[in-house]
Amino acid sequence: MKAVQFSQYGGPEVLEMVELEKPTPGANEVVIEIKAIGVNYADTARREGQYVVPTPLPFVPGAEVAGVVVEVGSEVTSVQIGTKVVTLLGSKKATGYAEYTIADERGLIPLPEGVDYNQAVALPLQGLSAYHVLKTMGRLEEGETVLIHAAAGGVGTIAVQLAKLFGAGKIIATASTSEKLELARELGADVVINYTEEDWVEQVKAATGGKGVDVALEMVGGKVFNQTLNCLAAFGRLVVFGAASGEQSKLTPSVLMGKNQSVIGFFLPQIMKKPALMQQSLVELLTYLQKGQLKLIVGGVFPLSDAIQVHQLLQSRKTQGKLVLVP
Known about the structure:
The chain has helices at about 40-45, 115-120, 125-135, 155-165, 180-185, 200-205, 225-230, 270, 275-290, 305-315; strands spanning about 1-5, 15-20, 30-40, 65-70, 85-90, 100-105, 110, 145-150, 170-175, 190-195, 215-220, 230-240, 260-265, 300-305, 320-325. By secondary structure, the protein is an alpha/beta fold. The strands form three sheets. Strands 3, 4, 5, 6, 7, 14 and 15 form a seven-stranded mixed sheet that branches. α7 links the parallel β11 and β12. The longest helix is centred in the last third of the chain and has 16 residues, at about 275-290. The chain starts with a strand and ends with a strand. The model has no long low-confidence stretch (mean pLDDT about 95).
């Protein structure tokens, strides 16, 4: 089968198309013929050798796929050959940027009627991240104010909509262009702010009457982390789920004491270690999607052979919504 892998860490140019053996399933595993692959910042972090956990070489990136089950292991009972599924890959044998992959049957979610592969593949990583950053880690309560950075991106577009569905009182969204801000407003943001403007922190505070926000989602790192911390209200929670800038942040813990504030880390693979929690939340997201309550923004669909260009696009921060690769 064809796959895209890297054998050294570096820029997008280290990605290369290769021929690999088609995987064979273990007793509780299935083989999926991949129809859509989600592209994420985690893929670029792995490629650069900057991921949260070590990335072995050579490595085939890609954590979320949608496709058709074409082979099942001897003890698989929950799905049959021909079932359309979406899943988040966790096995060391899994190959995301490829024509086929292997997956544990426990992580498979059958696709509801009316949900296509390109839409579904936006949910396992970015949908689950948005869900758990807001609800599980951020503990967003009805009526609270939430600040969502990069609100026109893959996680951001979903987080804006989920915050509304979860009952947020006010949603403040940031982005870098007027087009992205307009998209965030269309998706449900009450206040939109261009974070390239020097006074964006003051704008957030003004939008909350000086109180600050109850929950903030932060995935940029560096200076933006500290600026976001400055936006928190008393008892506010700042959830860190990435460092897209590549810059590390510095925190003096004692600054949290004055207003009983919290900084919370989020890493999706820890949710995957709780299969019941992961499945429950993914089913909930698919239900929102099927009912038309959740709109997934697909920013572009590209052939697998264009993986280098897609990584360049993602890291340019000029894209909106989800980028998808198709074998």
